[in-house]
């Protein structure tokens, strides 16, 4: 049986136990490669440590890291009965923003790790804010290191209250959050209910992960298919190729390509070298549209239904987070925006509001500049036609990365599109 897939982000303040928790999840679900366990079982015995210890798994995972740096917890995989989980990059990771935009880091749900002995810390706030911005559906809050606070219920309650307040501040629906007292290190309430927390009768972390709602493929949204390439194939003609982000494409559909503003009827759809009558989100397809020639369309166009065509922005308003910029960003700045398969120079026409990353509230109206670490609402004018959608309507087509000087300097999501 094929398991459903989930992308899971593990977020939280440094040292609160994210890596240890991921190691623990891999260990408890039998996802640590057998040869790794074997090697360390031997080592443990040689050293007379009496059997195999979780700590050895952590040590081994730690070998992959440079000294003193947290293990690379991204791209680790484990399965529960229901799901196959991939841990995606975490905020703060070097390529996080880039991967987030290309979809590789688009997490469906997240585990927030909060150390019981420290409570809400600066990165807890930042990550919760990012999680909300990025559209995380459900948050499982692991109140970690319960062993350090002697499994005290009152300490747990205090942290739950503190995190609940934080979620309310950033307007994250607290009904979509669940809380579990855990020790990643000792394994409490991860795979099995812990004897140390008799006052807790909720789910273990693995149970909570297993009962997450299944991510729903966006089949009900209108068709959006960003074009990656356009080929000419003998016997068929012009064949645009790309991955369907949302909606469904059927043979016979009337489609429109934007911003090139041409369209026609879908004659054939091909997937994995076979003709298919229809294709769905996630499918990589090549297709042919009656009357469309190779020079009529290009990479960066988005294909959608003729009666609900992709939006083309004259300007758009967006929320951006500046990840790294050597100086300051002011109105007039024109870097390259990467959105789906499109790359277009865009001018930041105005900086409308600066947001407090911790609370998501407006910190300053019309600031003169923004810099690394800032979140802001800005108005953007593409220098060439760009098809993009409000994130609230079609999130898959509503985010972008801003690149300059060979690196990703900011990421954002579209709040509003002003069409021509
Ligand atoms: P990260 O920076 O969030 O990935 O945190 P780490 O997983 O690297 O953990 C930071 C430190 O806390 C390490 O020394 C861990 O051994 C320790 N730690 C993590 N989880 C627990 C726990 O549940 N109990 C105790 N006592 N220590 C923990």
From TrEMBL:
Entry annotated with the keyword Cytoplasm: yes
PROSITE patterns in the record: G_TR_1, G_TR_2
Residues annotated for GTP binding in this entry: 12-19, 89-93, 144-147
Highest taxon of the lineage: Archaea
GO MF annotations, alphabetized: GTP binding; GTPase activity; magnesium ion binding; translation elongation factor activity
EC number: 3.6.5.3
Keyword set, alphabetical order: Cytoplasm, Elongation factor, GTP-binding, Hydrolase, Magnesium, Metal-binding, Nucleotide-binding, Protein biosynthesis
Top EC category: hydrolase
Domain Tr-type G, residue spans: 3-219
The keyword Cytoplasm is annotated on this UniProt entry: yes
Subcellular location: Cytoplasm
Coiled-coil stretches noted in the UniProt entry, renumbered to this chain: none
GO CC term (a single one): cytoplasm
Primary location recorded for the protein, binned into one broad class: cytoplasm
Reactions listed under catalytic activity: GTP + H2O = GDP + phosphate + H(+)
Binding-site residues for Mg(2+), renumbered to this chain: 19
Functional note: GTP hydrolase that promotes the GTP-dependent binding of aminoacyl-tRNA to the A-site of ribosomes during protein biosynthesis.
Family that this chain belongs to: Belongs to the TRAFAC class translation factor GTPase superfamily. Classic translation factor GTPase family. EF-Tu/EF-1A subfamily.
HAMAP family: EF_Tu_A
Name of protein: Elongation factor 1-alpha
Gene that encodes it: tuf
């Amino acid at each position: 049986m094929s398991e459903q897939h989930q992308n899971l982000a593990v977020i939280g303040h440094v040292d609160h136990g994210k890596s240890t928790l991921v190691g623990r999840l891999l260990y408890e679900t039998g996802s640590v490669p057998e040869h790794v366990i074997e090697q360390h079982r031997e080592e443990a015995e040689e050293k007379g440590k009496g059997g195999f210890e979780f700590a050895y798994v952590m040590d081994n995972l730690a070998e992959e890291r440079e000294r003193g740096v947290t293990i690379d917890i991204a791209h680790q995989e484990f399965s529960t009965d229901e799901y196959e989980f991939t841990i995606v990059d975490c905020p703060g990771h070097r390529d996080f923003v880039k991967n987030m935009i290309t979809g590789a880091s688009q997490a469906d749900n997240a585990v927030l790790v909060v150390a019981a002995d420290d409570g809400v810390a600066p990165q807890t706030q930042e990550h919760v804010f990012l999680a909300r911005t990025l559209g995380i559906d459900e948050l499982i809050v692991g109140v970690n290191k319960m062993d350090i606070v002697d499994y005290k219920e009152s300490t747990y309650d205090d942290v739950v209250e503190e995190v609940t307040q934080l979620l309310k501040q950033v307007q994250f629906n607290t009904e979509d959050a669940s809380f579990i007292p855990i020790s990643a290190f000792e394994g409490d309430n991860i795979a099995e209910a812990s004897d140390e927390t008799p006052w807790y009768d909720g789910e273990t972390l693995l149970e909570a992960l297993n009962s997450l709602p299944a991510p729903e493929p966006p089949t009900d949204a209108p068709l959006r298919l960003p074009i990656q390439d356009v080929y000419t194939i003998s016997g068929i003609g012009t064949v645009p190729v790309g991955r369907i982000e949302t909606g469904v494409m059927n043979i016979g559909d009337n489609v429109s390509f934007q911003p090139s503003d041409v369209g026609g009827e879908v004659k054939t759809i091909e997937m994995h070298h076979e003709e298919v009558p229809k294709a769905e989100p996630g499918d990589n397809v090549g297709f042919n549209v009656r009357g469309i020639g190779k020079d009529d369309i290009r990479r960066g166009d988005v294909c959608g239904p003729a009666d609900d065509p992709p939006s083309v922005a004259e300007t758009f308003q967006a929320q951006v987070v500046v990840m790294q910029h050597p100086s300051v960003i002011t109105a007039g700045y024109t870097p390259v925006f990467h959105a789906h398969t499109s790359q277009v120079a865009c001018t930041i026409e105005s900086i409308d509001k600066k947001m407090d990353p911790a609370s998501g509230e407006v910190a300053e109206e019309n600031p003169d500049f923004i810099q690394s670490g800032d979140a802001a609402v800005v108005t953007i004018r593409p220098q060439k036609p760009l098809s993009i959608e409000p994130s609230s309507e079609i999130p898959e087509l509503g985010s972008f990365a801003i690149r300059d000087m060979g690196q990703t300097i900011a990421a954002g999501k579209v709040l509003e599109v002003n069409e021509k």
